[in-house]
Write a structure and sequence with these properties.
The protein is of the alpha+beta class. The chain has three domains: 5-165, MutS, DNA mismatch repair protein, domain I (3-Layer(aba) Sandwich), CATH 3.40.1170; 177-235, 5' to 3' exonuclease, C-terminal subdomain (DNA polymerase, domain 1, Orthogonal Bundle); 250-361, 2-Layer Sandwich (Dna Ligase, domain 1). It has helices spanning 13-21, 50-54, 63-69, 82-99, 116-119, 123-141, 153-163, 176-181, 193-201, 207-211, 215-222, 224-235, 264-285, 317-334, 356-359, and strands at 5-10, 30-35, 43-48, 76-79, 102-107, 110-114, 145-150, 168-170, 250-261, 287-298, 303-314, 339-347, 350-351, 364-365. The strands form three sheets. Strands 9, 10, 11, 12, 13 and 14 form a six-stranded antiparallel beta sheet that branches. The protein has a five-stranded mixed beta sheet with strand order 5-6-1-7-8. α4 (82-99) runs antiparallel to α6 and α13 (264-285) packs antiparallel against α14. The protein starts with a strand and ends with a strand. It binds 2'-deoxyguanosine-5'-triphosphate and calcium ion (2 copies). One calcium ion (CA) binds next to β1. 2'-deoxyguanosine-5'-triphosphate binds next to β1, α1 and β3.
Length: 366
């Protein structure tokens, strides 16, 4: 079965978020800027809406130059507020997470996704899924996005680029070869200026030409591994899987003691805030832990640890404190020197569920 891989990218993201917040901006050129603070205009354009792009403004352009291009056009110059875009991004990623089989965020406003299993490889179902994803994001955040669908990540990414703005580009597996034929190699993910210059010197400018090149010639110019990658990219057969965004597997906190000691209470007392921080991270991520590790780093930088695991996940900070203290008692008995730094780590993380409040009464399993 052919894979169904998608790539979604929000249109002129930061500037569009600003337009949603202040709809009167929609009729004007908008630039979102990172001010460096040296002079009033020093800094760069982070992004611009399409009205400003039509006037020649783009990401990374110095603000002063952008202002010159936008002079007399009633442009809006807005200060970038990263936290605001992060919050919107987080809500969109959650929405996406619910609607795809595997989600791999690759930036603040974009992600790969895999819907092979849920569509059974049926591209007409995939189109419906992609349309409903676009609709859901629009209904929830009033933001437009562009989506590409195809049998590999490279194809899906080409699709979302071509679909901009507010589009959906589907490259069904059977049409992949014809689709790629005239695509310039510079558009293929992983092919930078240096590679494309070498290819150009070999008379290769399009993916079609690259696909037809002699593997031996590519191998000679680029080595075996990268040569093989180029062929895969040019034929849309790159097998790179969509990998779920990494979930945290542990949280830890290590502090430097005010003076070297192996007194468990003293170490524990100074680590107290660190334990709270670790607990806060658990709360923020909705996780419970099964294993606690006390970490002691000695003056010679050697690391000693003691761990204890529970039979069921625990999310109680009192339990975390008790266990940490008793682990430090064990740990200090086992070392011949003082600790310089101490830490605590929780691992074996799992989502907190309705039963976890019961599990805090379970005794630790040694
Ligand atoms: P698009 O996708 O072409 O419709 O436009 P954008 O603005 O969404 O562009 P994209 O997807 O490359 O980047 C997403 C956001 O990342 C963009 O809204 C602002 C930020 N960004 C992009 N390029 C730059 C840059 O060169 N400097 C800074 N500071 N931020 C950037
Ligand atoms: Ca974007
Ligand atoms: Ca992007």
């Amino acid at each position: 079965m052919a894979r169904v891989v998608g790539h979604i990218d929000l249109d002129y993201f930061y500037a569009q978020v600003e337009e949603v917040e202040e709809p009167s901006l929609k009729s004007r050129p908008v630039i979102v800027c990172v001010f460096s603070g040296r002079t009033d205009d020093s800094g760069v354009v982070s992004t611009a809406n399409y009205k400003a792009r039509e006037l020649g403004v783009h990401s990374g352009m110095p603000i002063a130059l952008a202002k010159k291009k936008l002079g007399g056009k009633d442009a809006a110059v807005i200060k970038m507020e990263h936290e605001k875009y992060e919050a919107v991004s987080g809500r969109i990623m959650e929405e996406l997470e619910d609607r795809v089989d595997v989600l791999e965020p690759t930036g603040i406003d974009e992600a790969f996704f895999d819907i092979t299993a849920s569509t059974g490889g049926d591209y007409s179902k995939a189109v419906e899924a992609a349309e409903s994803i676009k609709r859901a994001i629009f209904e929830r955040e009033r933001l437009t996005s562009s989506v590409g669908l195809g049998r590999s990540k490279i194809i899906a990414k080409l699709g979302s680029d071509m679909a901009k703005p507010d589009g959906l580009k589907v490259i069904v597996p059977e049409e992949t070869e014809a689709f790629l034929a005239s695509i310039p190699v510079t558009k293929l993910y992983g092919i930078g200026p240096k590679t494309s210059a070498t290819l150009s010197s070999m008379g290769i400018r399009t993916a079609g030409e690259l696909a037809g090149a002699q593997p031996a010639d590519l191998e000679r110019a680029f080595g075996r591994k990268f040569g093989a990658y180029l062929v895969a990219a040019a034929t849309g057969t790159d097998a790179d899987p969509v990998v779920a965004g990494l979930e945290p597997t542990q949280f830890s906190r290590i502090i430097t003691l005010r003076r070297d000691t192996r007194e468990p209470l003293e170490a524990f007392d100074q680590l107290s805030k660190g334990i709270e921080r670790v607990h806060q991270k658990l709360i923020d991520s909705g996780k419970a832990f099964r294993t606690v590790t006390a970490i002691g780093i000695l003056a010679d930088l050697s690391i000693k640890t003691k761990s204890r695991s529970f039979e069921a996940p625990v999310d109680d900070v009192a339990v975390l404190r008790d266990v940490t203290l008793s682990l430090f008692e064990d740990l200090s008995r086992s070392v011949a020197r003082d600790f310089r730094r101490v830490g605590v780590r929780v691992s074996g993380l799992s989502a907190v569920d309705s039963q976890s409040s019961l599990t805090q009464f379970l005794r630790p399993a040694r």
